[in-house]
């Protein structure tokens, strides 16, 4: 599959992107194997989430030929204490036809640049153990496994572990 990295526009998400982001959620959730999320977010939920992001949190979208084909979010790890303000959590979601084509790397470059500018020192992600493609993708970016939560996900009666991976900036 050809790399289309040069044809990708990465930009911060706006409320106008809500329908496209929800459509990506619907597609990824329907696959039942790439995320622990088992029910897609509604337009209202996604709109509320985007509106709730602090100045240190962001969603980037990736566009190809004017179509939003993926997004990546960066959130603070916790909100109840400042002792972990240096830690962010990231998630990446792409439409199937656009995986493995360099788009995730472009999103991550934008997200990590943003993270550094906003005082993050460490980024955590958690990936389903069965999602070996995502684990390989994050490892290619320098993330290393740092823990496992056994039987953390249960979708359609099937358990999966979640692997935590971390990257120090």
Structure report:
28% of the residues lie in helices and 36% in strands. The protein is of the alpha+beta class and 169 residues long. The chain has a domain at 5-120: Gcn5-related N-acetyltransferase (GNAT) (Aminopeptidase). Helix 3 links the parallel strand 4 (87-94) and strand 5 (122-128). The protein starts with 7 loop residues before the first strand and ends with a strand. The model has no long low-confidence stretch (mean pLDDT 94).
Features:
single chain; 169 residues; alpha+beta; Aminopeptidase; 7-stranded mixed beta sheet; 4 helices; 7 strands
List the helices and strands and how they pair.
Blueprint: E1 8-12, H1 18-31, H2 43-52, E2 58-64, E3 67-76, E4 87-94, H3 103-117, E5 122-128, H4 132-140, E6 144-155, E7 158-168
Parallel strand pairs: 4-5
Antiparallel strand pairs: 1-2, 2-3, 3-4, 5-7, 6-7
Helix pairs in contact: 1-2
Question: How large is the count of helical segments?
Answer: 4
Model regions low in confidence, pLDDT < 50 over at least 5 residues: none
What is the helix fraction of residues, given as a range? 25-40%
| Global mean pLDDT | 94
Class from helix and strand fractions: alpha+beta
CATH architecture of one domain: 3-Layer(aba) Sandwich
Helix-strand topology string: EHHEEEHEHEE
By DSSP, the count of extended strands is 7
Biggest sheet: strand arrangement: 1-2-3-4-5-7-6
Summarize the biggest pleated sheet.
Answer: 7 strands, mixed
* CATH level-3 fold name of one domain: Aminopeptidase
CATH hierarchy class name of one domain: Alpha Beta
Q: How much of the residues is beta strand, in percent?
A: 35-45%
Our measurement of the CA-to-CA distance between the termini, rounded to an integer number of angstroms, reads: 30 Å
General form: globular
CATH superfamily of one domain: Gcn5-related N-acetyltransferase (GNAT)
């Amino acid at each position: 599959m050809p790399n289309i990295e040069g044809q990708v526009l990465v930009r911060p998400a706006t409320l106008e992107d809500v329908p496209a982001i929800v459509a990506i959620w619907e597609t990824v959730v329907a696959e039942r194997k790439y995320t622990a999320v088992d029910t897609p977010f509604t337009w209202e939920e996604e709109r509320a989430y985007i509106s709730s992001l602090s100045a240190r949190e962001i969603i980037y979208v990736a566009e190809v030929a004017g179509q939003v084909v993926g997004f990546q979010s960066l959130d603070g790890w916790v909100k109840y204490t400042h002792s972990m303000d240096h830690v962010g959590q990231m998630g990446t979601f792409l439409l199937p036809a656009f995986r493995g084509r360099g788009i995730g790397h472009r999103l991550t470059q934008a997200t990590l640049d943003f993270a550094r500018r906003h005082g993050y020192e460490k980024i955590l992600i958690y990936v389903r153990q069965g999602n070996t493609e995502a684990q390989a993708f994050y490892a290619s970016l320098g993330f290393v496994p740092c823990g496992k939560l056994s039987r953390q996900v249960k979708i359609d009666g099937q358990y999966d572990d979640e692997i935590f991976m971390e990257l120090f900036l």
